[in-house]
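Handout, section B. The chain below has 345 residues.
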Amino acid sequence: MWIGGHGADKGRRNGTGSDADALSNRVALLLAGGDGTRLQDLTSEITGTPIPKQYCRLLQGASLLEAAISRAHLLFPLERINVVINENHIDLARDQVRTLPAPNIFVQPLNRDTGPGMVFALLTLECAYRDATVAVFPTDHYVDPNWAFIGHVMRAVNAISYMPDKIALLGIAPDNPETGYGYILPAGPLKLSGNVHHVNSFTEKPNSNDAREIIARGGLWNTMVMVFRLSRMLDLVREAAPREVRDLFELRTSPERAPGLYQTMQPWNFSTQVLARIPQHLIVLKVTNVFWSDWGTRESIERTYRTLNLVPSWKLEKAVGSKSSIFDEGLDEPMRVAKQRLERH
């Protein structure tokens, strides 16, 4: 499937490829193609089957994907929120993405790590919009308060409006030398409002000694939330990883070839193969006054709950199938309003 099982709806979006379109066509892209193998023990405990973490109701009755859609909806209308999923996750995703238009669900044939998933989704966006300003959101993070985080995303959107040849990353101050994250080492500040810097280097998953050294030099964790002009990112991807994307770019003219290409495609990581190779094209905005956690492991999830002085919902009741809301337990009011808005559609 290419876009929700349908061809690109070009007429609905009227992309023309001009600079003005790239600035006015602001879209969100949610990455939900991971298999979440490291959390299979936990998701099995909660649901009875090892489902990917983004579909598991880890947040007091809401899934991480549902929370990410609501978060993005603080800045983007539903018709501008897009999600990339895997074909074998359609049944899991169907109810959780029901608020989005069908053409906004991008179904890739298989999970081949973040590189193919990202490029597949960007090519699908290009087919629909020609060009746009894209904000990318992972769907396996805990963020609070959401309105403050989205304020930082808006700053990144504004930065790209002034510097459309750059890729804006959101970074957050580390509290330990975590070896499973990417690290951004800021360089000199930019003459823009807010805490925006050039980037000296990008290091994906350093060892503990290197992580400590990067932190000592002012390094930030990469949240994998980024904003960029679509056409610029596609140019940089082809420049940084020409071998990896050669076959993927054939989908521009032959999208029906996707299933066959994915069968023989080698997995590759977007941060390692692209971001780490183009630090001169990156800028970073430091996120402040936000609690952020990458929920890649059971330990990180339970650490977040301890920090918030909460008991994980799966220790009280089964999380999947519950219709209780993440927004009913003291989280920020704007997110409660966004959730109510989603439920009315």
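Note. The two ends are 25 Å apart (CA to CA). Compare this with the example in section A.
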